[in-house]
Design a protein that fits this description.
This protein is α/β, with parallel strands linked by helices and 322 residues long. It is 31% helix and 28% strand. The chain contains 10 helices and 15 strands. Strands 3, 4, 5, 6, 7, 14 and 15 form a 7-stranded mixed sheet that branches.
């Protein structure tokens, strides 16, 4: 089978097209013939390693969100058969024509859900809905979403509106700002601000912040948080916070990590998955696809995501050709 991996750390250029035998599923696993792969910024960053020169063991095949059909069922797995269409999380090995995934992190894809939507919802949708529920959003409250044009953010702004938010503000970076703003307004957001405008206070005060950026953007988000407001941090490096300052303004900061949510609250995770499928089938949740590229153009997909110019997800299709 064909796959993409990197043998050294660096930028998108280190990704190479290689060949390897089709793997076999072990106990509790499924072998999936992949039809679509979601490219995410955290996975893109893995190619660069860490400052001390280390990182994931090499060579490495990136992980990601995948959609495909079951090609083989491992021992002890029930509820799946060869030919079933599934969406799954692959912690490694996703950039390939076939991938082995834990059955516990796979889900049947209902009829009527496209590959593109399924790739969005299997993880990005779960994060978006999870952070929104963690915020305790009340009907009529205002919501600010950072990285709003990204794979999670553009779903979060829609889910906030579905949940009854009175005002939805989308915060975006400077790259392709006009394109991002137009796309977000088409999804129904009330206001779009750049991070510079956010720092200048132009978003006003909001009740809830869903922050996927961190750093100086998170600091600006905290300044925009109304008394009794809640900020949910789900990605990016956080800032140092004065707890007494939080107390004086009755503000709350909540950390959200998908690993704990998926592993520790399986019933909630399954319920959220059903909600996301239903919202997509009803047309109330519209995933955006920035581009679909063949597997061998993975380096180009990484450049787009790393450059922060995408609106929605960038996808890879193993079956496509250049």
């Amino acid at each position: 089978m064909r796959l993409i991996r990197f043998h050294t750390y660096g930028g998108p250029e280190v990704l190479t097209l290689d060949r390897a035998p089709v793997p076999a599923p072990g106990e509790g696993e499924l072998l999936v013939k992949v039809s679509a792969i979601g490219v995410t910024l955290p996975v893109v960053r893995l190619t660069r390693g860490v400052p001390d020169g280390t990182g994931v063991p090499l060579p490495h095949v990136p992980g990601g969100d995948v959609v495909g059909t079951v090609a083989s069922v491992g021992a002890g797995v029930t509820g799946y058969a060869v030919g079933d269409r599934v969406a799954a999380l692959a912690f490694t090995g996703a950039y390939a024509e076939y991938v082995v995934v834990p059955a516990a992190f796979a889900a049947p894809v209902p009829d009527g859900i496209t590959d593109e939507s399924a790739v969005h919802l299997v993880r990005g949708g779960q994060v978006a809905l999870g952070v929104l529920r963690a915020s305790g959003l009340q009907d009529g409250e205002s919501v600010l979403v950072t990285a709003a044009a990204g794979g999670v953010g553009h779903l979060a702004v829609q889910l906030a509106a579905v949940a009854g938010a009175g005002r939805v503000v989308a915060a975006i970076g400077p790259t392709a700002a006009s394109t991002k703003a137009a796309a977000l307004r088409s999804l129904g957001v009330d206001e779009v601000v750049t991070y510079e405008e956010l720092s200048a206070g132009r978003a006003g005060q909001v009740d809830v912040v869903l922050d996927g950026v961190g750093g100086d953007v998170q600091r600006a988000c905290l300044a925009s948080l109304a008394p009794l407001g809640r900020l949910v941090a789900f990605s990016g490096a956080g800032v140092t916070v004065d707890v007494n300052e939080l107390r004086m303004h009755a503000r709350t900061i909540i950390g959200f990590a998908m690993a704990h949510h998926a592993g520790g609250r399986r019933e909630t995770y399954a319920r959220h998955r059903r909600e996301l499928w239903d919202l997509s089938l009803e047309g109330r949740l519209r995933p955006l696809v920035h581009d679909v590229l063949p597997l061998e153009r993975a380096c180009e997909a990484h450049r787009i995501v790393e450059g922060r110019g995408n609106v929605g997800r960038v996808l890879l299709r193993p079956g496509a050709r250049c």
